[in-house]
Design a protein that fits this description.
This protein folds into three domains: about 5-40; about 45-135, no CATH class; about 150-285, no CATH class. It is about 30% helix and about 15% strand. It is built from nine helices and eleven strands. The chain has helices at about 5-10, 15-40, 50-55, 105, 110-120, 135, 180-190, 245-255, 285-295; strands at about 45, 65-70, 75-80, 80-85, 170, 195, 215-220, 225-230, 235, 260, 270-275. The strands form three sheets. Strands 7, 8, 9, 10 and 11 form a five-stranded antiparallel beta sheet that branches. Strand 7 and strand 8 form a beta hairpin. Helix 1 crosses helix 2. The longest helix is centred in the N-terminal third of the chain and has 25 residues, at about 15-40. About 40% of the residues are buried. The model is unreliable at about 30-35, about 140-165 and about 285-300 (pLDDT under 50).
Length: about 300
């Protein structure tokens, strides 16, 4: 048998142990293939669903890419030439006739997964028919809008991020709320969902009353370098987390768009390290490039 794959299948047929090892190998290969496919998908941010549709009409967006419209609370993805929303709000986007993960026999499952992560990062609700089992399993009081975890409208001040409120702050521990790097981080992540923390919150081992906390956290490391975490259930999530790890990528993409220099992540990374623009390890913000990437009124 010259074909290595055929030889491996032959060995798998000789014993239960070999068969089990072969099955595990196939699962790992399939998981890696899914991750690679998701890595090729892009997330595009727009100021309105009308702008998003215009970009799709101009072929600025590729089939399957994710569309995020923060000011309208809309997230979806492009299906051939039609932007389809998975969130409760849809603006000028269309609706899918079947659950997003099952549409076209699962052809857009990776797009649906990435879009759901983007909606989670934005803090907007996903329609029940498009939600994954993980999202559906969340308790109602742990959804965006409950327990003080609602996301602010893009461009609006976030109460508690800079000023402590009842011993908590949003997006950082209260002891860091006046740190200049944290203030810059808050501006860069404007519109994404910040976690509400106390100084006693242990993001690796949260207490029972902290397990409804979700969102991003900025932890300043000095000289303009900040570690950004994503919390679900009060606990930090790694990049290789099948359901929540993509939120780290969303944070990294947003920071890069806002001129921060992000350090490369490993598959097992628990955070995104980024350097504030103008800091020793950072780069200057390119406002012209940012305007083009935003696809806003001053875009292309």
């Amino acid at each position: 048998m010259s074909d290595p794959q055929s030889y491996v299948r032959h060995l798998a047929g000789q014993s239960q142990l070999a068969a089990a090892a072969f099955q595990v190998g196939e699962i790992v290969a399939e998981t890696d293939a899914r991750r690679e496919a998701r890595a090729e998908l892009k997330i595009h941010h727009f100021t309105s669903t009308a702008d998003a549709r215009t970009a799709c009409d101009r072929d600025d967006v590729t089939d399957g890419d994710v569309l995020v419209v923060g000011p309208e609370g809309v997230v979806g993805f492009l299906v051939v030439a039609l932007p389809a929303a998975i969130t409760e709000e849809r603006g000028e986007f269309g609706r899918l006739p079947t659950p997003a993960h099952e549409y076209m026999a699962g052809e857009y499952a990776d797009s649906a997964h990435l879009a759901e992560c983007a909606a989670r990062a934005l803090g907007v609700p996903v329609r029940a028919e498009h939600a994954s089992p993980v999202t559906l399993a969340l308790r109602a009081d742990n959804l965006p809008g409950a327990s003080g975890q609602s996301a602010p409208a893009s461009g609006q001040p976030i109460e508690g991020v800079i000023v402590e409120h009842n011993g908590t702050s949003r997006g950082c521990a209260p002891r860091h709320c006046t740190d200049p790097d944290v203030i810059a981080a808050r501006e860069a992540l404007d519109g994404l969902l910040p976690a509400t923390l106390t100084d006693r919150h242990d993001i690796s081992e949260p207490a029972d009353d902290e397990r409804d906390v979700r969102g991003w956290v900025a932890d300043p490391r000095g000289a303009g370098r900040v570690a950004f975490y994503w919390l679900e259930g009060g606990r930090v999530r790694r990049r290789d987390d099948e359901w929540h790890g993509l939120c780290l990528k969303i944070l990294a993409d947003r920071l890069a768009e806002r001129g921060w220099r992000t350090e490369p992540m490993l598959r097992c990374s628990q955070c995104v390290f980024a350097h504030r623009p103008g800091s020793p390890g950072g780069v200057a913000v390119n406002h012209a490039a940012l305007a083009v990437r935003s696809h806003g009124p001053a875009g292309e």
